[in-house]
Specification:
By secondary structure, this protein is mostly helical. The protein contains 15 helices and no strands.
Length: about 475
Amino acid sequence: MTEKSRTGGAVALAILLAGTFMTALDVSIVNVGAPKMQEDLGLSGAALQLVISGYSVAFAALLITGARLGDDRGHRKLFLGGLVGFTLTSLVCGLAWSPEVLVAARILQGASGAAMTPQVVTVIQLWFTGESRARALALYATVICAGAVVGQIVGGALVSADIAGSSWRPVFLVNVPVGIALMALGPRFLPHTRSDKRRPLDPVGVALLTDFVVLLMVPLVFGHQAHWATWVWVCLAAALPTGLALVLHLQREQRRGGDPLIDLCLLRHAPVSLGLTAVAAQMVAYGGFLFALTLHLQGGLGESPLRSGLTFGPYALGFAVTSLAAPMLPPRLVRRVATIGLAAMAAGYADLGLAADGGSWHDALMLPILAVAGAGFGAGYSPVIARAVAGVPAEKARDASGLLTTAVQLFYALGVATIGSQFLSESHGSGTGHAFAIAAGACAVLGLVAAVLTVALTRAEDRSRAGRLAVAAV
């Protein structure tokens, strides 16, 4: 590789990672500004949940579709198109003059992220080889972790700075100059890549998956505000046949030799199904915990957005350190660390809930507990995802990765919807301390479930390994 091509590759990677950083940042940066948004625009509790989780719901529902379109139309084209949409919707979010505009722009922002994000790993896999690919993928993981850390702190700093009286709006507007710079550089430096095998979109699968997500998430978000009216139960009931229709469609496409949106055969691999369930439990807990803790810190304890963001710092930093360090350990130790880490995460959530309910919330005690909880989450999150896809055949690796990434976003949003709704309902009657204690307790239970599932995952891996050795011996 010539010096010029190496330079071009470095710039292309920087553009891809900067786009990834923006999408990762927007998952966490909004949390810290949520109370100010609610105060400024008069957002209801349900609308606030949609602002936070609507991004993740749209992202999750369309992520696999974005990957398919990239394979079919070109990864560079989809990345740049998603980048344009993400930048424009960030601008609209920052200028939003009503709750409806903010919610709609947030959902469209998630859809734009779903077009942009899947192309990053694909381009890295196609354009880099050997050690260069390994370094690029490691940087990709680091950028995602950094987004979680920086989002909380920068979000708090921007809201507290109240630049020209703009309050929460810079948490969205900060994306605009970055997006414009990437749009200027992208057409010049990004490579033209396309999958060797064109994959049809499966529009029926897309429609059914989107309908299922909407029918499930909307009533969960608005149910408590609507006092669980009839329409809420009608939507939840309609989600069941829609989900069944999706499964039947995917099975039919598989039988006739088509290319369904989701390959259900992946779920027959015990490590994939167990890993997916463990990740689901972690993400529901994570989404609910961030939402409830943010509102408790600012609404119940009266902390400023900056102080609230800094309070999240130990949690986010602990997550970043262990999620990067854990995969470097020997495989046998990684498996133990994941289980121990998730148990520590559960204990941290429980301790934080007990302290909040008892009125004994002190930074000297709480910040280390937050660090332990975040480190436990990081020790269980990245290694479990890696273990879930490790035994998948190479030709199915991209489908497995897409399925897991979709689950991460969808179950994060589900945590905001379910645990967030419980928090909002409880806080009206008994205050945020007791409401947060109940939310943190639910998160602790989910953490323990995830820890138990990692034990089952280890056993499934051992059985799978023993089976492969037996076949090899024959």
